[in-house]
Design brief:
Length: about 575
Amino acid sequence: MANANGVANEYDSEERKREQKYGKSYKWVALSNTTLGILMASIDSSILIISLPAIFNGLGVNPLTPGNITLLLWLLLGYMIMSSVVVVTIGRLSDMFGRVRLYNMGFAIFAIGSTILYAITYLFTGTTAVILMIIFRLVQGFGGGFLFANGAAIITDAFPHNQRGTAMGINQIAGIMGSLIGLILGGILSAIDWHLIFLISVPVGIIGTIWSYLALHEIALIRKNQKMDYLGNITFALGLTVILISMTYGLLPYGTSSTGWASPYVLGGILFGIALLVLFVIIEIRTKDPMFNLMLFKIRAFSAGMLSLFLAGIARGGLQFMLIIWLQGIWLPLHGVSFVNTPLQAGIDMIPLLLGFLAMGPVSGHLSDKYGARLFATVGMLINVVGFLFLMTLPVNFGYLNFALIIFFLGIGQGMFAAPNTTSVMNAVPPEQRGITAGMRATFMNVSFMFSIVVFFSLLVFGLGAALPAALYHGLISQSVPANAALTVSKLPPTSALFAALLGYNPMDSLIPAGVKANIPAANYTTITGNDFFPDLVSAPFSDGLREVLIAAVIMSAIAAGASLFMGKRYVGRTGKDNK
């Protein structure tokens, strides 16, 4: 008890010193600015998912042709790859040179990248425009990495220990809410003018940059006597980059396979990346000033929190991705929505997920300040387990009320988990390690999103691959399509159909070659390219693939719940010791 009182008095003394130097309102200034940064960075990570058709149409590029699918993947995922790779290095640099300084730099880079990206949309067209947009999306992702790496650390520095859960709850809402808002906002803006998709981040980037330079102060102790671990940084960045890029190309067909997992380039890239990460661990163990202090994994709250964060992130990202395909490819067309309009409507229909998160995120953060993080993080993941099981009971052509209630329930579970998990991780480490901890946490979160797309998309493709070809063949034959043409279409990889549905293109219109279309009677072609034909054909195969996806999500959420339960009750970051 004496030790607890002593630590509490030490925290109170630090809080009084902060208030005397920076004012009582500074912590809220820090929270609002970092929340704006995380919100915008998160919106930009997902805003293109819904709006890609409008962007490619505006540029005069067909994203589904074989030569352009690679451009499509890079424009969609390049931002997250870049931000995932750089956040740990930036977190380490922040501990050495100042968290606020690097956060300000990141906001400036983000603003510059956003401004140039917006200009490109007016100055160039065709594949040249797409390539330039990919480059400056990488610049945006680089700046976003600074924001992801330092936001949680700046908040932890600014708030007393008994208010961090509330602050983290608000900040985490912005992070996860941003990815959901991006889906909706992308659909709305692309329906008005696709250029607006890239305009929205320009004023936010400029205002946020100026505001952060004027308002934020360096509270944390800067460790100038530390040396940069160059070899560790290179091996980590290169290893993670190679793995993420290889996994991204694993989504594309290879030979006669529906995915690229059999490609020697994909497998070789993943093995090479893993070898580099193993080398990174060896380097870090032997380095005096490592890029990342692996000894932090000895802290139970840190290691358990990171594991649960990673698994929960995969489950959450996979859920969003699968719901978009489910809604856009099947449910909305069956309910009379044209494929052109499904992206926007899918974003709207996912609002209950956002509302559930908004309802519980701040509450769980506030309550975790009082009662500890373990209970809320664990229960949140268990709610996800139940929610995924409920989703498995829904037919492919469900009733919307049941669907809305289930995803609202899932949003509550994710909101209950997010802030307590972040608070427990940040409180578990010594103050001088908060920058690198925030960077590592952001890496785990961003990489989990990349993993979720790759893992769940591959599971869905494997599930579709077994039944979709036969369903396509017999369905086309029934509409007077010549047998040889029907056989050709049925052999096309399920990846193409899923990408078409994800992008708001009519999959059948995209899959049938132009030479075949001329030989199909007009009435039959109208039926084939109508709203019902593809969803009716794909419903049963999709249901099989979706079941595999949801089973994986249940397992990951259950393990995340167990890891959260193992975190311990309360943590005192000042000591860096594990509270049993």
